[in-house]
Design brief:
The protein has 171 residues and is mainly alpha-helical. Helix content is 64%, strand content 0%. It is built from five helices and no strands.
């Protein structure tokens, strides 16, 4: 394996991307909050919900709206890159509440038909039903994204900046 030593320290600069970091943080917070929504509303402790799609709130919506808002904040809300990020965010949210949601509802009906026609349905034969989101789940995720990302970018900055502030990395 040939590693170029000159490019090795360059990896640390990805930590200087506050927009990426806070978009991912919004996604992570949304995903972790699914555990608490499950506990509060369904009275069930299911850590597996952390690795599932669907549910309240939409972590994908939080990711794309947080990232788009961060891009707008850093480059300007009139920048074409913000327009592109916003367009991608709308496509992701439309897909989550439309196409993926419909696929999940269809899977539920197919599973119901299979169950009624078979004595025993093996777990391998069932289709995954929790694929998309309701409009409410998408809305909450889309509000959570900028709510996490914008203050993070403004008040804390990038992970590299945070590491420099606490003295773990010298700038």
């Amino acid at each position: 394996m040939n590693i170029n030593p000159a490019s090795e320290p360059q990896f640390i600069y990805i930590l200087d991307n506050a927009v990426l970091a806070w978009g991912l943080a919004a996604c992570g917070i949304a995903q972790i909050s699914k555990l608490f929504f499950e506990l509060i509303f369904k009275k069930s402790w299911r850590p597996s919900v952390l690795f599932e799609t669907g549910g309240m709130p939409s972590s994908h919506s939080a990711l794309v709206t947080g990232t788009a808002a961060g891009i707008g904040l850093q480059l300007g809300f009139n920048d074409p890159i913000f327009a592109l990020a916003s367009t991608i965010a709308f496509i992701v949210m439309y897909d989550a509440s439309g196409i993926r949601r419909s696929a999940g509802l269809t899977a539920a009906k197919v599973n119901q038909i299979l169950k009624s026609n078979a004595n025993e349905l093996s777990p391998e034969a069932t289709l995954k039903e929790s694929l998309g989101h309701t409009k409410k789940e998408v809305l909450v995720g889309s509000l959570l994204g900028p709510t996490v990302a914008l203050p993070g970018i403004v008040f804390i900055g990038s992970p590299l900046h945070l590491l420099e502030m606490i003295g773990l990395v010298s700038g």
